[in-house]
Amino acid sequence: MTTFLRDTATVFSREVKPAAREPVTLLFEMGQPLLFLFLFGSQLDGAVGSSWQWFVPGILVMMCLTGPMSAGYTLLVELIGGSMERMLVTPLNRTAMLVGRTMKAMVVLLVQAVLIILLALPLGFDLHAAGVLAALAQLVVFGVGLGSFSFVLAIKSAPGGTLFYVVSQSILFPLLLLSGVLLPLETAPGWLRVLGYVNPVTYIVDAQRALFAGNLTNPSILYGTAAACATAALGLYLGNRAMRQGV
Length: 247
Hints:
By secondary structure, this protein is an all-alpha fold. It is 77% helix and 0% strand. The protein has helices at 2-21, 24-29, 31-40, 51-69, 72-81, 83-88, 94-120, 129-157, 162-177, 190-197, 200-212, 219-245.
């Protein structure tokens, strides 16, 4: 266990240092979420109750999808460039390589989420501390699974990389549009609502909105937590197996 923790810390440090040296990159990555927050969120005022309480959780889920899901891109670049092969011949634990990389993606996500929440406060967003903390913890669990899936996809896509771009983009936008992140599914056609109900991200979004509203007893929180845990468990299992098998 000590060796595993040391290897995880080594990989995490290797991954997080470039981001720490260039914090401005984090702000550029938040460009699209900020545009949605300020330009789209204000148009929902009155249409969905408290628009900021409804929209901010959706923006954070969108960031959770686009951030960890694209984390595999870094791994893909290393696979194509050959630097990952040099890591694979070291005594570093393969599972630690996965966990360390995933932890870096989660730290970036948390920093960006805190910034979004702080920027939303002057707009009328009400902060329920307990609910926000629980919501961020749920996002971390969900993001761990998504990040792991992206690493599996990167490994399977090497050395060309085409598969990574095709699959990630073809999955990402349907997951977003069918989850009610930007518009409520209640007003959608029946067939669209059915597709939304089979989308696990929908349950994450509903749970996030309940938690950010401070409604800690809402049943949707249980469903969202179950969806997040299932995603994390499956992602870690597949990611760990892919790392152990090597490239």
